[in-house]
Design goal:
By secondary structure, the chain is α/β, with parallel strands linked by helices. Helices cover 39% and strands 17% of the residues. The chain has a single domain, classed as Alpha/Beta hydrolase fold, catalytic domain (Rossmann fold, 3-Layer(aba) Sandwich).
Length: 193
Amino acid sequence: MEINVDERSVYIATGNRDFDPALATVVFIHGAGQDHTVWVLPTRYFARHGRNVLAVDLPGHGRSAGLPLRSIEDMASWIVSVLSRVGLHEAAIVGHSMGSLVALETGATYADRVRTVAMVGTAVPMPVSDKLLSSAEANDHAALEMLALWGHSTSAHLGGSPTPGMWLLGSGLRLLERSAPGVVHADLNACHQ
């Protein structure tokens, strides 16, 4: 589904179901340098079990236009704008890594708009090393490699995925490589701040 927020195109995956504002809704927020595709399996599950799902591409990510937002607070405000734009008063918010900080901030700041919060792969605070920040700022591929390596257990580094033909580490790296220059740094800096 595509909508406009702040006069910019926003892409939202819906689990291949039509959006029905009468249903309970789950909003999925991706991590740094990622997009809606990290939520393919959860969105399918919830969409087929009587929920709306909105797996957003944050501004500057995936298929959404614009520049990346510079703070977790701005991202939380943007999530509430998405809810308003699609006609929802409240939703459950699920976030991964950076998205978990956004989910937490959305719940804390806009409690009347959030039914519940679920966070995956989170730390509060979420400091980012100087080396990773400087590599990301320079658009150095090493930043993406660090994120991919640190984001997967050592068993994923060696292969052996339960799904034949799938390589989690390689898939994660390819996803990060699709990010526009500056996006990963903006996201990591927002987490660090």
